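User: Show me a protein chain along with its predicted structure.
Assistant: Here is one chain, sequence first, then structure tokens.
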Amino acid sequence: TAIRIQECVAALEFAELPPGEKITVSQGLAVYRADERIEATIKRADDALYQAKRDGRNQVNPNLSETALSA
């Protein structure tokens, strides 16, 4: 899951980073709908990713638009 990916990345230690510094992951999620082109799914995931980045570090943003939920 997206949260597990974040946890695994946060647990990694990189010698190149200063002590206490961690790598974070922001993710945008979208569910593919059979009635849409894959490009539309990717666009929704991309939009969700950019919203996650605007929301701050280490965020997961599922695309929960009405059209995504109606499937």
